[in-house]
Amino acid sequence: MASIVAGVATSHVPAIGVAIDQGKTGEPYWQPLFRGYEKSQAWMAALKPDVAIVVYNDHANAFSLEVIPTFALGCASEYAPADEGWGRRPVPPVVGHPELAWHLAQALILDEFDISIVNRMEVDHGLTVPLSLLFGTPAAWPCPVIPLCVNVVQYPPPTGRRCFKLGRAIRKAVASFDRDLRVVVFGTGGMSHQLQGERAGLINAEFDRRFLDAIVADPQAATAIPHVEYLREAGSEGIELVMWLIMRGALDERVREVHRHYHVPASNTAVGHLILENFPATNQERTP
């Protein structure tokens, strides 16, 4: 049977993709940020997942205010990088896994999650930047990707508790798939940042660090954070952090923190990153 073996949380700042694409990762401004992902890329290369489920939000490329699905699951065989106004990122097309994606769609809908099924869409920096951070710059992405797009742009976004429950449902759905696949789940977006208004440029490192701790050790506390607290403490775009809770819900109750990285700033955003593995599968000290 298929199983979820690990979770990755990471910010998806568009300027990070520009730095990668323009060969600026070694510059003094960017080097500390990218140094924090070196261990992550080595870990991912050793893990060799068969499929990645990437939870992200679209930035008015695949969807507009005309159609706003709360949860949209990509079931296509391929997704082209979107042109976000400066041309498409020079990254490979994202190859999907329709068989597992359709299984997820069926299982989640029958589990009473109203998932929108998407058979054609382009993917923007919300998805491609995390792939670049974890997989580097390959000629082709090393595993198929299933995009799960979440509305965190137009109010009301889903609650953290609903996102966590969706992660739990994804874990159950993956476990019921009758092929031997090792799946990694990405939760992307955040951390604290605000792009407009009087508080533009807001970064709250104290809130971010508390959230990182909670995601690892007390996810139920993180699920209880209301929308207004994200807005007040983490800025208008801090609500993206609810997507991390889908990833966390897809893991076991106990997890092992493999790696943590926090950097301020990247452009005008606080960057956070975690790698989590299910504790029973990785605890080397447990007795047989």
Notable characteristics:
two-stranded antiparallel sheet, alpha/beta, 8-stranded mixed beta sheet, Protocatechuate 4,5-dioxygenase, Chain B, disordered C terminus, 11 helices, 288 residues
Oligomerization state of this entry? single chain
CATH class equals Alpha Beta
What percent strand?
15-25%
Order of strands across the main sheet: 6-3-7-2-8-1-10-9
CATH superfamily: LigB-like
Number of domains: 1
Summarize the helix and strand pattern as letters. EHHHEEEEHEHEHEHHHHEEH
What does this structure look like?
- This protein is α/β, with parallel strands linked by helices and 288 residues long.
- The protein has helices at 14-21, 31-35, 38-47, 98-110, 125-135, 160-175, 205-217, 219-223, 227-234, 242-249, 279-282; strands spanning 3-10, 51-56, 71-74, 78-79, 94-95, 116-118, 145-150, 182-188, 255-266, 269-278.
- Strands 6-3-7-2-8-1-10-9 form an eight-stranded mixed sheet, sandwiched between helices. The protein has a two-stranded antiparallel sheet with strand order 4-5.
- Strand 9 and strand 10 (269-278) form a beta hairpin.
- The chain is globular and about 45 Å long.
- 47% of the residues are buried.
Task: Summarize it.
The protein is an alpha/beta fold and 288 residues long. It is built from 11 helices and 10 strands. The longest helix has 16 residues, at 160-175.
Map the helices and strands.
Elements (H helix, E strand, L loop, with lengths): L2 E8 L3 H8 L9 H5 L2 H10 L3 E6 L14 E4 L3 E2 L14 E2 L2 H13 L5 E3 L6 H11 L9 E6 L9 H16 L6 E7 L16 H13 L1 H5 L3 H8 L7 H8 L5 E12 L2 E10 H4 L6
Parallel strand pairs: 1-8, 2-7, 2-8, 3-6
Antiparallel strand pairs: 1-10, 3-7, 4-5, 9-10
Helix pairs in contact: 1-5, 4-6, 6-10
